[in-house]
């Protein structure tokens, strides 16, 4: 009986271990799917921009989630030497529903739309004091309050840097010169071939005409010789 009990407990222990393993794999799979399709925000491929003092700049930000959103909360902050100043915030109830945005900065306008997953803002009449980092943040309760943020850096300048196009101009000039030279050589070649063909045609005509004249003269002289050789009756 003792051996049976130990065998039974061993089998049940293996079964419990197998169940735990399967449960662990299922949880890991669910977590993997959740993390892959989780909420993400992005400020685009270019995360730094230079803008002139006094101009208006777009601070871009978009969000994405493979499983959708519900009561998505988002905000924009400006990092003022470590102090986070809130610029605006809002809640998007569901897909395609436009949010009621609260703006806390006099020179900020919300220009996004939930229809395009866009939560971008405009910053008007920028000054040198506006230079720095702007953080776009979002949180999705549908994903157990998963949150994500992205940083956009603004540089304010007196004037835009002039791009030195010297190298480009040199390359374009060289390429254009080579193309022009090739075209010139081709035109000269075509003209030479044309004149050579004309000379050949003239030479052929001369040969044909000269051979015709020779035959005519030979024929006439032969006829005269035949007439002279005929005896009188």
Structural summary, described in words:
With 233 residues, the protein is α+β, with helices and mostly antiparallel strands. Helices cover 42% and strands 27% of the residues. The protein has two helices and eleven strands. Strands 2-11-10-5-6-7 form a six-stranded mixed beta sheet, with no helix packed on it. Strands 3-9-8 form a three-stranded antiparallel beta sheet, with no helix packed on it. A hairpin with a 5-residue loop joins strand 10 (132-140) and strand 11. The chain is elongated, with a radius of gyration of 45 Å. Mean pLDDT is 79; it is low at 25-35 and 220-225.
Structure in a nutshell:
The chain has helices at 2-36, 166-229, and strands spanning 40-42, 48-52, 57-59, 62-64, 72-80, 83-92, 102-103, 108-110, 121-123, 132-140, 146-157. With 233 residues, the protein is of the alpha+beta class.
Count of DSSP H/I helices: 2
Major sheet: 6 strands, mixed
The outline comes out as elongated
| Structure class | alpha+beta
Whole-Å distance between the termini?
Answer: 163 Å
Q: Total number of β-strand segments? A: 11
H and E order:
HEEEEEEEEEEEH
Q: How much helix is in the residues?
A: 40-55%
Structural key phrases:
3-stranded antiparallel beta sheet; 11 strands; alpha+beta; 233 residues
Q: How are the SSEs placed, and which strands pair?
A:
Layout lengths: L1 H35 L3 E3 L5 E5 L4 E3 L2 E3 L7 E9 L2 E10 L9 E2 L4 E3 L10 E3 L8 E9 L5 E12 L8 H64 L4
Parallel strand pairs: 2-11
Antiparallel strand pairs: 1-4, 3-9, 5-6, 5-10, 6-7, 8-9, 10-11
């Amino acid at each position: 009986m003792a051996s049976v009990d130990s065998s039974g407990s061993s089998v049940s222990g293996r079964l419990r271990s197998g169940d735990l393993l399967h449960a662990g794999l299922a949880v890991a799979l669910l977590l993997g799917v959740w993390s892959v399709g989780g909420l993400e925000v992005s400020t685009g491929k270019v995360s730094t921009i230079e803008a002139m003092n006094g101009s208006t700049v777009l601070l871009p930000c978009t969000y994405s989630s493979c499983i959708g959103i519900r009561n998505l909360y988002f905000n924009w902050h400006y990092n003022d030497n470590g102090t986070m100043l809130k610029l605006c915030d809002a809640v998007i109830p569901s897909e395609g529903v436009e949010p009621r945005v609260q703006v806390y900065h006099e020179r900020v306008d919300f220009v996004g739309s939930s229809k395009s997953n866009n939560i971008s803002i405009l910053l008007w009449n920028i000054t040198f004091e506006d230079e720095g980092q702007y953080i776009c943040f979002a949180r999705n309760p549908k994903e157990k309050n998963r949150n994500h943020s992205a940083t956009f850096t603004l540089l304010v300048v007196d004037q835009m840097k002039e791009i030195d196009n010297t190298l480009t101009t040199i390359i374009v000039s060289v390429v254009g010169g080579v193309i022009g030279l090739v075209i010139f050589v081709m035109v000269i070649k075509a003209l030479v071939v044309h004149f050579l063909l004309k000379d050949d045609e003239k030479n052929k005509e001369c040969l044909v005409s000269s051979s015709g004249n020779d035959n005519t003269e030979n024929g006439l002289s032969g006829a005269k010789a035949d007439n002279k050789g005929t005896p009188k009756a």
